[in-house]
Design brief:
By secondary structure, the protein is of the alpha/beta class. About 45% of the residues lie in helices and about 15% in strands.
């Protein structure tokens, strides 16, 4: 999309106050968008509203919304749709993480919490937003044609299985599948709805800072070399903006992480060994294992 396309367009994002979500908002605000920030209400969300206005957003509004509350989701999108007429960009970003798997004692409740936010939440948001997605852009061939963007936050875990994070990996695989399916469905309908799926490597967010011992493990983990360096939320936001401008259907952050699913096509063994080696680093941190393996991470966005 050309820069001038964004001016006055409607931008909606879930998980807006999270680390990644807020950085995405900061990158898009100078384009002059009308922005709706959806999240559980908190002081950070209110502060972000003022900040985005100063950065150049035409309109900024925070709305309290829980992606597991179907009635709240529907009323929110009906309000936005009736106020704006359409939604030009919807960033389905809300999600959580956690060390939850079968072999580490993860409970079904732990599993369902991750799935209800990361997968069910995306489905419910898309379902409620569907009548408003895209702005009319008719052609002679298709007078019903619409134009817009859908952005999905998945993860590098959506391309391979991560030890001790089976529930999270499952949820992010589902996001990739959802994005691929929706993209083809809009193509079949003749719409110009660009669907972008974002697969970041582990990012430095509040989840990793939730416990001093976990922070210590992260520090040791990153000393292993370039491949193990955590990315910054701003790195993810920059790539999302570029993907929106140039329409990249699927992006990895950093770029070279596309090698993981590529190598996995030829050798599951090699990739598996790499991921197991990463996970085994935690064995030197017993307090991390006992305290955090079953915990739910804070919002990753």
């Amino acid at each position: 999309m050309k820069k001038k396309w964004y001016k006055g367009k409607t931008f909606v994002i879930t998980g807006a106050s999270g680390d990644i979500g807020s950085e995405v908002c900061r990158k898009f605000a100078p384009l002059g968008l009308r922005m709706y920030l959806l999240d559980l209400m908190n002081p950070k969300l209110n502060d972000l509203v003022s900040e985005l206005g100063n950065l150049g957003a035409e309109h900024v509004e925070a709305i309290e919304m829980d992606v597991t509350n179907q009635e709240q989701i529907k009323s929110t999108f009906d309000y936005i749709g009736k106020t704006e007429g359409c939604i030009d960009i919807l960033h389905n970003n809300a999600g959580i993480g956690g060390m939850v798997s079968i072999t580490n004692g993860g409970s079904f409740d732990d599993y369902r919490k991750i799935m209800s936010i990361n997968v069910d939440g995306m489905w419910l948001v898309l379902q409620a937003a569907l009548p408003y997605i895209g702005r009319a852009a008719p052609t002679k061939k298709n007078p019903e044609r619409k134009q817009g963007q859908l952005i999905f936050t998945s993860s590098s875990a959506g391309k391979t299985g991560i030890p001790n994070m089976a529930a999270y990996s499952m949820s992010k695989h589902a996001v990739v599948g959802l994005a691929d399916s929706i993209r083809r469905e809009f193509e079949m309908l003749g719409h110009d709805i660009q669907v972008i799926c974002v697969c970041p490597a582990p990012a430095r967010t509040k989840f990793w800072a939730s416990d001093p011992e976990l922070e210590k493990w992260v520090e040791q983990y990153q000393q292993k070399g370039l491949l193990y360096k955590f990315i910054e939320a701003e790195d993810v936001a920059n790539r999302i903006l570029k993907a929106s401008r140039k329409y990249k259907k699927e992006i990895y952050v950093p770029r070279y992480w596309w090698l993981i699913p590529f190598l996995q096509m030829f050798s599951h063994h090699t990739v598996g060994k790499l991921l197991i080696k990463i996970e085994e680093a935690k064995k030197d941190m017993p307090s991390v294992n006992s305290k955090n393996e079953k915990s739910q991470g804070k919002s990753e966005e």
